[in-house]
């Protein structure tokens, strides 16, 4: 059954788009889903607020609210937008986003840079292993190149000289928060910290074999969870159900 309203997948890190596409294709079998991408230019300051403002410019002319979905930093942008403009958001689906939305893989990368006597390439290779597990050296090298592009040219709330923080907490709209059981970026403890911020009808879900990019490696498992949530969020009784914590 298709959802009555549209969905919008947010991407503020275009180099990571490949990891969204498998799940996005599956979701399109159920709902018309658009893909919004923010491309930061070399002369722009690294500003999450700018991305939120541009997203509002894109959505402010819509007559009906929309389902928002995003992974990592993109999910954090979706969360900040939903806090500012809840009337424009039908529901919020966060993939790999902690209760502290400032936490991302960049957080761990810069911690390693500050604490390990290794060159940048070695740390990026280690980050690739942390994010994707035991994969071949050729794939690890390719992922490390993607991470370099992400660090050097795309939006992040962290750098070597500054670490941003955002307020923890939920939103007024229905929210689904998903993570991977073997994610060391948004680990099970950080995922569980969402619990006090959930309202009736909100959901926590854990992909039992997933890492940080679980929505890519286990897209077929994530897809029905999101579709079911969207259908329930569209129902007029969406906020009357008990909170569901699913694993």
Overview of the molecule:
It contains nine helices and seven strands, in the order βαβαβαβαααβαβααβ. With 247 residues, the protein is an alpha/beta fold. It has a seven-stranded parallel sheet, with helices on both faces. The protein is globular and about 50 Å long.
Whole-number mean pLDDT: 86
**Helix and strand composition category:** alpha/beta
Q: Which strand order spans the largest sheet, edge to edge or round the barrel?
A: 2-1-3-4-5-6-7
Can you write the helix and strand succession as a string? EHEHEHEHHHEHEHHE
Q: How does the overall form come out from the CA principal axes?
A: globular
DSSP E strands, number? 7
Please count the helical segments. Answer: 9
Biggest sheet statistics:
7 strands, parallel
Helix content: 40-55%
Low-confidence parts lasting 5 or more residues at pLDDT below 50? 238-247
- DSSP strand content: 5-15%
Task: Supply database-style keywords.
single chain; 247 residues; alpha/beta; 9 helices; 40% helix; globular; disordered C terminus
Short précis:
Helix 4 runs antiparallel to helix 5 and helix 5 packs across helix 6 (137-153).
Strand-helix topology:
Elements: E1 7-11, H1 18-27, E2 33-37, H2 48-59, E3 66-71, H3 73-84, E4 89-95, H4 105-115, H5 120-132, H6 137-153, E5 175-180, H7 188-192, E6 203-207, H8 214-217, H9 219-234, E7 244-246
Parallel strand pairs: 1-2, 1-3, 3-4, 4-5, 5-6, 6-7
């Amino acid at each position: 059954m298709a959802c009555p309203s549209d969905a919008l997948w947010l991407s503020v890190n275009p180099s990571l788009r490949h990891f969204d596409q498998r799940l996005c294709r599956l979701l399109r079998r159920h709902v018309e889903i658009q893909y919004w991408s923010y491309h930061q230019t070399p002369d722009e300051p690294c500003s999450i607020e700018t991305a939120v403002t541009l997203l509002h410019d894109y959505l402010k002319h819509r007559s009906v609210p929309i389902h928002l979905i995003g992974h990592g930093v993109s999910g954090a942008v979706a969360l900040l937008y939903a806090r500012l403009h809840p009337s424009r958001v039908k529901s919020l689906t966060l993939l790999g986003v902690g209760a502290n939305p400032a936490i991302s893989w960049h957080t761990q990368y810069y911690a390693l840079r500050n604490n390990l006597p290794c060159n940048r390439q070695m740390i990026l290779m280690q980050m690739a292993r942390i994010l994707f597990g035991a994969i071949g050296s050729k794939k690890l090298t390719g992922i490390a190149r993607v991470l370099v592009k992400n660090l050097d040219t795309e939006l992040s709330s962290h750098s070597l000289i500054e670490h941003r923080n955002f307020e923890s907490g939920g939103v007024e709209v229905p929210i689904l928060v998903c993570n991977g059981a073997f994610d060391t970026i948004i680990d099970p403890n950080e995922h569980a910290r969402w619990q006090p911020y959930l309202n009736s009808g909100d959901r926590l879900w854990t992909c039992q074999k997933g890492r940080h990019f679980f929505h890519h490696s286990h897209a077929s498992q994530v897809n029905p969870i999101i579709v079911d949530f969207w259908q329930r969020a569209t129902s007029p009784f969406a906020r009357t159900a008990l909170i569901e914590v699913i694993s």
